[in-house]
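Design request, tokens follow.
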């Protein structure tokens, strides 16, 4: 039964409701010291740029009065020092912040993969959309930390210091600069964020739709061509691409308006500083040298806030990506960790499997897929579970293989509930073939060695012979080194199924679960494979899940499941002698 456990990836409801941007920044909290150092280095780099132009203005204005070279030596040294420090501190700032951001990104990716490994990811997300979440939405964390976190903090530090300096030089000039920086660094970014919120949210969604359409087109190309639907599917791809292009244009327009507004504010502020400075010189409040410093420092100061409108315009997209990212991280696991980690199944313990009052459903409002199932697989025995499609047979296999937790009841191995063990520990003892096994884009040898990495070729050939696939592999020019193609498209459907069977046999588990192992095989091969599988499974606790009644006279016991419940059980002969679903199907 599902219970509350100490899931290290779990988050409470209060955390789920937090702003996605704040949650994304929170992911970088362990490296807060590095980001703080990066902000200081960035402030030093930006401040060096502003100070460089200010010192240069002072030096040029002073030089117009033809002073001695000694009077200018300090300014010359300062100019060189600021030029060097600007480049050095900028490099160090990028090094520190990017290092911290990439380490955070790597940690986020690990968390995403850990979460997906414990959920039915491909049942909850479409494959193309999942790829977009794994790549684009995860990398949005990097954009936020590098472009959305450091520049605003640098602007606050450097802008405040620059305004303070100009206030000392000439109070009205400092106040004017403060007003200009607030407009360019706060008002314009806020407007850009408001204008970019809608397009930003649509951009992440449009990118996910385009990725989904492309993946569906590529993976389903044979069927689309066969049914003449390729043109319609390609049109869907074009429509998704057009939507993303429209959103990108709207985003570009926002960035253009922001850049124009910033340039306008910069020009007006500089002209205002020049006007006030000229009046101050005429009144004798400041000298010509201070005027030059005032104007050029004001011009340089807007370099501080230049990145902010572009960052603000992207916040909508980053926020939407954050929502999609946390949509993955907040997905509850299909298999909860045990209350106590580190437990191992005794390899010498009894391998009897007992299912007691098992209940499973796929949602709170969904009907029960399994509703009180009771069955037993004695150690070393072979038990078959049969029934019509939709009866819950594959759900039972998912629970035994620890791909789902029970919602009620227990599944025991050797008298201990499987939920008391880590999922990987159970899968070390319980193995099998799912209804639609995955074949990796590699060689036959490497696909087989997934079950036993150190297996020698003779062991591989033995497994292939048991699955009745050795003859076909021997006929291939490269034998075990034959590339099977993406998703095993280089093999026929029956060959892919038999490859998965061979992989399961090679793993030699104590409990073998076979979920529709002959679904893609022709009748003659099917009979032979069932016979070979039952021979190969001798000595193991074996559960054969099938809707095909071939070879069931060789199993020890048969359970008939209908509508999530066991309606009949007994030996092959007992069920044939009794009125019911099994006998009716056999007669038909």
């Amino acid at each position: 039964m599902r219970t509350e456990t100490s899931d290290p990836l779990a988050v409470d409801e209060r955390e789920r409701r937090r702003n996605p941007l704040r949650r994304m920044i929170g992911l970088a909290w362990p490296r807060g010291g590095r980001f703080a150092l990066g902000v200081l280095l960035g402030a030093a780099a930006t401040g060096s740029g502003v100070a460089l132009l200010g010192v240069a203005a002072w030096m040029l204005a002073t030089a117009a009065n033809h002073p001695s070279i000694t009077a200018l030596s300090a300014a010359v040294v300062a100019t060189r020092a600021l030029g060097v420090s600007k480049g050095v501190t900028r490099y160090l700032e990028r090094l520190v912040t990017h290092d911290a951001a990439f380490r955070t990104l790597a940690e986020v990716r690990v968390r995403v993969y850990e979460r997906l490994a414990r959920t039915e990811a491909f049942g909850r997300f479409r494959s193309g959309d999942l790829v977009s979440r794994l790549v684009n939405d995860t990398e949005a964390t990097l954009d936020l930390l590098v472009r959305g976190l450091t520049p605003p903090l640098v602007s606050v530090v450097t802008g405040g210091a620059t305004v303070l300096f100009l206030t000392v030089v000439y109070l009205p000039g400092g106040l004017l600069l403060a007003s200009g920086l607030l407009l360019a660094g706060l008002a314009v970014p806020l407007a850009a964020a408001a204008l970019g919120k809608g397009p930003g949210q649509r951009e992440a969604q449009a990118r996910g739709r385009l990725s989904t359409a492309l993946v569906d087109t590529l993976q389903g190309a044979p069927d689309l061509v066969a049914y003449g639907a390729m043109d319609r599917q390609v049109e869907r791809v074009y429509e998704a691409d057009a939507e993303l292009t429209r959103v990108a244009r709207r985003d570009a327009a926002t960035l253009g308006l922001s850049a124009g507004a910033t340039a306008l504010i910069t020009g007006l502020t500089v002209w205002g500083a020049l006007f006030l400075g000229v009046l101050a010189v005429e009144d004798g409040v400041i000298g010509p040298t201070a005027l030059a410093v005032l104007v050029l420092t004001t011009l340089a100061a807007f370099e501080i806030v230049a990145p902010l409108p572009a960052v603000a315009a992207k916040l909508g997209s980053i926020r939407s990506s954050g929502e999609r990212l946390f949509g993955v991280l907040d997905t509850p696991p299909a298999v909860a960790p045990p209350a106590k980690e580190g437990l191992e199944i005794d390899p010498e313990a009894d391998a009897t499997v007992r299912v007691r009052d098992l209940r499973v459903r796929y949602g709170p409002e969904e009907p029960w897929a399994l509703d009180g199932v009771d069955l037993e697989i004695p150690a070393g025995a072979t038990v078959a579970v049969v029934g019509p499609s939709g009866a819950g047979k594959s759900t039972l296999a998912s629970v035994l293989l620890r791909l789902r937790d029970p919602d009620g009841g227990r599944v025991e191995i050797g008298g201990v509930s499987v939920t008391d063990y880590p999922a990987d520990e159970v899968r070390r003892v319980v193995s099998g073939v799912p209804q639609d096994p995955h074949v990796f884009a590699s060689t036959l040898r490497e696909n087989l060695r997934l079950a036993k990495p150190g297996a020698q070729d003779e062991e591989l050939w033995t497994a292939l012979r048991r699955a009745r696939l050795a003859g076909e592999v021997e006929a291939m020019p490269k034998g075990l080194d034959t590339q099977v193609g993406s998703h095993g498209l280089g093999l026929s459907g029956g060959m892919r199924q038999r490859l998965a069977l061979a992989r399961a046999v090679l793993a030699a588990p104590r409990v073998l679960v076979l979920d529709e192992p002959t679904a893609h095989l022709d009748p003659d091969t099917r009979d032979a494979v069932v016979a070979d599988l039952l021979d190969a499974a001798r000595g193991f606790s074996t559960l054969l899940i099938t809707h095909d009644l071939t070879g069931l006279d060789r199993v020890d016991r048969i359970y008939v499941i209908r509508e999530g419940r066991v309606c009949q059980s007994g030996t092959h002969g007992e069920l044939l002698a009794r009125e019911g679903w099994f006998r009716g199907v056999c007669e038909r």
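Comment from the thread starter after seeing the answer: thanks! The longest strand covers residues 353-360.
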